Amino acid sequence: MFYSKNRFSEFLKFGGYSQEDVLIHKSRARLMQPSFVLVRDQKAKCFLLFIRGAISPRERLTAASSVEVPFHHIVLNEGQIDNVILGYAHCGMLAAARWISNLVMPPLRNAVREFPDYQIKVIGHSMGAGIGAILTYILREHYDFTSCTCLAFGPAACMTWELAESGKDFITSLVNRDDVVPALSKVAMESLRSEVMVSSKLDDPQDEAHLGLFAKISQRVAFAKSHMLSISHSTGKTADPDSSISEPLLKEAVEITQPEENGLKIDCICRCFCRTGHTS
């Protein structure tokens, strides 16, 4: 419901939330500032952060800002730095994730202290799923949010492989069959480009047979056109020299002495066709 263009009140009604459960809400999307909402789900005992996918032109521009920028994840273990994962991330999604983190961390920290048994879950779709995945990395670098998990529906490619592998324990991605958004990435496009270039250099016997058949048909069509033109314009008669059928016709046509009048020329050519077994 939140991902559609329905009113926010309908989303609250559908989820069974009240205005008191809404911790922060940004409905108007801007460049690298997507629409999101942070709510408290008392039934599930969770703080749910919903991030919408790209619907408005500004959100699509955020998705189009796909320059790779450095992004490193600090892994905490009992409040201490255990590891650092180096990598790169999508520029637009990373900027959006940092913008959301700056807004949600103060109210979320207060809410976690008030309800320490509540879990934190980030939910996103498409571009919002990619932003949510990066945001989960950012939140987990803080001790109060180390239990944060992410549920990504059709996430867009947003980070390098090492970073993605390091988050498989707390990020769940759901992809609908052949959805193009999760599969579309720089690596996939380079792989497709390489396959197309390699396949274009291979000799396909079937394609050669088709080209040969097309060449023969073209020769027959050219031959027919040449003799059709010779009937209406005898001086402009042409024929395909590679055609074995046209050779005796041309040879016999040259040997015939044609009168100067156009009507007699046509009659001579028609007789030539009849003697060789062709009809005009």
Automatic annotation (TrEMBL):
GO terms for biological process: lipid metabolic process. It comes from the Eukaryota. Pfam families: Lipase_3. InterPro entries: AB_hydrolase_fold, Fungal_lipase-type. Residues 49-186 form the Fungal lipase-type domain. Signal peptide: none annotated. CDD domains: Lipase_3. This is Fungal lipase-type domain-containing protein. The lineage of its organism: Eukaryota, Viridiplantae, Streptophyta, Embryophyta, Tracheophyta.
